[in-house]
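Journal club side-thread
Mid-discussion, someone asked how the predicted structure for our own chain would compare to the paper's figures. Pasting it here so we can look after the session.
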Amino acid sequence: ALDAWSAPLVMKKGRPGQLLAFLCEEDHGQELTELVLKETSSLGVRLQRIERTSLQREAVAVSTPFGEIAVKVGLWKGRAMKGKPEYEDCARAAREYGVPLKTVQEAALHAYRARDKR
């Protein structure tokens, strides 16, 4: 599965239930359906085709007072749309420098935006 999630819900007659959902490539649908039927109490699975659009991704390194941090950049038609600091890099730097995670994340975003304006 490319992604999976669950959510509580109320079934008919007020019975509690769980919604289990997953996204997968079409050629994995039957395999995952079989897994759900085998491993859960469900008696059926609904399949639905959907389209997915995603941004191209690239990683850039930015310099911060806490060292280099990788920033994941989302591109649309070659143009940067958003950037997000890599969690693991930020967590490592926060531990190393004894500062809050959010401080490192904000520094990385600031460095990324400043780099983008050059």
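Post-session note: The beta strands are 3-10, 16-23, 56-64, 67-76, 79-85.
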